Fold each of these.
Amino acid sequence: MTTNQNALITLSASEAAEGLRNGDFTSEQLTQAHLDRIETTEGTAVDAEDRSLGKTGLNAFLHVNAEQALDDARQVDADRAAGKQLPPLAGVPIAVKDLIVTTGQPTTAASRMLEGWMSPYDATVVQKIREARLPILGKTNLDEFAMGSSTEHSAFGCTRNPWDLDRIPGGSGGGSAAAVSAFQAPLALGTDTGGSIRQPASVTGSVGVKPTYGSVSRYGVIAMASSLDQVGPVTRTVRDAAALHEVIGGYDARDSTSINEPAGPYLAEAEKGATEGGLKGLKIGVVKELTGDGFQSGVSQRFQESLELLRAAGAEIVEVSTPHFDHALGAYYLIMASEVSSNLAKYDGVRFGLRKLPEEGPVTIERVMSATRAAGFGPEAKRRIILGTYALSAGYYDAYYGSAQKVRTLVQRDFTNAFEQVDVLVSPTSPTTAFKLGEKTDDPVSMYLNDIATIPTNLAGVPAISVPAGLAPENGLPVGVQFMAPVKEDARLYRVGAGLEAALQQQWGGGLLDQLPDTESLIAARTQGSAK
Amino acid sequence: MTAITRDQVAHLAALAHIEMDETELESMSSELDGIVGAVQSVSAAPIDDVPPTSHPLPLSNAFREDVVGETLTNDEALNNAPDAEDGQFKVPAILDED
């Protein structure tokens, strides 16, 4: 039986960093191994003329940055050979969600609107990973402007789930999650507005963290909904997420919502949580409103098993009620869409991006804008802009946007009350395992329901992590467990997340991704199947 | 309370500067109707006397020191422009010709 086992690509980032320090291999070898894996698992363009059809394989990357990544890797190797002091993760490659701007390679937000656009500056998080000397493998696929829960709204074709190529990898950050779970990259950056890091992590068997709002800079992150957006790590282990969070976190004067306090330490907390008895004294609240009805049976089953393991590891488990979470989804979609309608107004064909002339009639600037936005935005972006325009318009503002903002207060209060009773909260990350590609594209409301467990944290700004909890017995697909902590208490997530991870891995005899089917065989089988 | 009409969507699309054909207006109005139906329960939440929250953190305006820093050069700023002339963005006529 073929497997994904390859000495270099299956290492966690922490293991790879140690191997580099010990001189077991070079960053060039490590980076090349990942580029090779990308080459063999991405697939080829379905139609060379039409990028919207995507690729035959994972299609996790919109751009592969091979030459620059290898140059950076060789520079790290040279500096190490010269005995220079290097940051802890130096030489470990990383993938970056294509919503985060980078110099030297295109940034598209998976939209036709920005096809071919080259950012004149680096996002702060990109600057930080460059300073930490992580070679950038490329830019990962997403739902257009990060709007979606399946990556099917990408203008450049959907990303496929490495567990089953006919299923969604989650969204919006399906590219980053697929890349990390399929061993194309040991680390990735994502963004999370309503679950876009955590839900993809959940359905691909990887780890994803949405940090406290304001604790990681948003400078250079293409804005979707500014009061909700946050950058965070996508990894295969909790420890790696903690290490990457330490790299990207911290104050940034260029983000006016940045918290002026140092980030971390997180790695030490992850190590503490993974040790024997590391969860003793921790009080965990099961969110009553985010369990039971509406959750797939295998999801609930793995969730209950995780609770047992946490209890066995020394944590106290109680039930907590957050009565207003029932209204959170509605509030989220109104607030998010309202902010979207404002943030996306800048794509008008004047200063950058697409410009489309009207097909007939006079060429005035207003008509050029309307033609440009009609051609540049996909259906989901248009839906959200129109919904936001509606929610903010005179006569409807109080009933929709105004009410949603008040519900936001109630959701925040629910968290405050809950955290007076417990240290962290827990729920399944997503109500279901990965669904089939195309299953929900015609039904926006059922697509939105995927975010039911992840959006309350974005409304309140609190941090959360998704940790793999095993495979659902009914379909063999990954299930995720979500922990939530009070604002600025991200460290607790790493402690409890690492504790659960250690207990589960002891049971499995390794990581969940050791059980991932061989990606290259899956792609070959699928390509042959469709050729018949 | 809902029932979003085709004409309403046409008005919203005009406000948002997105050209839409008849098919798109029809499908958007039925989709939007479904979405609004699903989210309007917010007004039924117990929100009387609850203050609105626009932002998750209690932040006031953050200002940097008023000093000259690095900025994009004129060329860098125009590099991605669909059209430019004499160091400026070039746009079609602002007013109708008539």
Amino acid sequence: MERLDRKAMAARVARDIPEGAYVNLGIGLPTMVANYLPADKDIFLQSENGVLGMGPAPAPGLEDPELINAGKQPVTLLDGGCFFHHADSFAMMRGGHLDICVLGAFQVSATGDIANWHTGAPGAIPAVGGAMDLAIGAKQIFVMMELLTKSGESKLVERCTYPLTGIGCISRVYTDLGTFSVGPQGAGIIDLVPGFSIEEARRSTGLALDAAQLAA
Amino acid sequence: MIDKSVASAQAAVADIQDGASIMIGGFGTAGMPDELIEALIARGLRDLTVISNNAGNGETGVAALMREKRVRKIICSFPRQADSHHFDALYHAGEIELELVPQGNLAARIQAAGAGLGAIFTPTGFGTQLAEGKETRNIDGRDYVLEYPIHADFALIKAQQGDRWGNLIYRKTARNFGPIMAMAAKTAIAQVAEIVPLGALDPEAVVTPGIFVQRVVPIMPASALAA
């Protein structure tokens, strides 16, 4: 089967982000989506530490320690971009002003619950940051993750076993083996990589994946 | 004449007492008022409650407060990071209390304190471990968690320019928690790269109105000193 690498996953997500969208890309894998957004279209990237209209990483030597993203990496500001304080930044999320958030996850449930902030392991220091705000922080919340763990367990599940970040908030899951819808009606298949069949997807996830949306 | 400028960081923090609650601006090291914190450490204070987004990065700022074991409790959103070793050691030794708050709720609770609100209903965290035991309410079909304001005795923040009335403007993403912490603390102390004359700040562009700021301390940025 033609499993997508991380770059191809990022490109796949980028295809579904329309011009004019206000978008927050979560830390880690989702950050890569920025590299595949079309340069000739206006797409507004927000980072929750207080910047809208975020541009790419600066050239070496031009980093500014006071111009960073939520991952604390140096970034640039596009012409027309702006800065704001934290209360305004999270009002953009909570108030439903962002169109799309793309998040990483440990698990997503068929009904759209997400677990991505804490493994619950004994002795682990919990840290939540903006995860719970982002999980409810846009009109559409996408997850981008590998479908299976290294040991082959599905991360798309009937019910999350890791501590929850948000309930019923995810609408779509982009993986290396296909794209899935989740929500009140349960999980469905939007697309699968060549060589990964509907039956294999159902067997791998243990879910009765609806295939009605799958383009023939 | 009202002049809120204070000559030194030492003078600006001279009346902070053991057990004080202190908001500290900054997201990572951006906006971290390092020189005010150094002055605070030099005071030898104990049992502080710190409200800040992170629990310290590397060796400076909040991390230095952790290293010197001055903090009894921290209220923050993201303590564990690759360079949070001073906090990690205290936490594993059971020597510090942690109240973990989602970042947006932290901002909203600080803002609520500054705005005089008794509480807020927030959708963030509903149904999660961080809302366990808290009052909830369904309003117009959406579930919310009741959260209370976070007040503090002092706020230590970093801005770019200030004037003697306490008006502030910030620099890039170093703004982060500064404006709302200034509102929420009884005494807000801002270190600024430059104090400018009254009227020099464009009134249309002032971010923090001087009413929220009690002290302004000029601290030349290290990069400017090196130049």
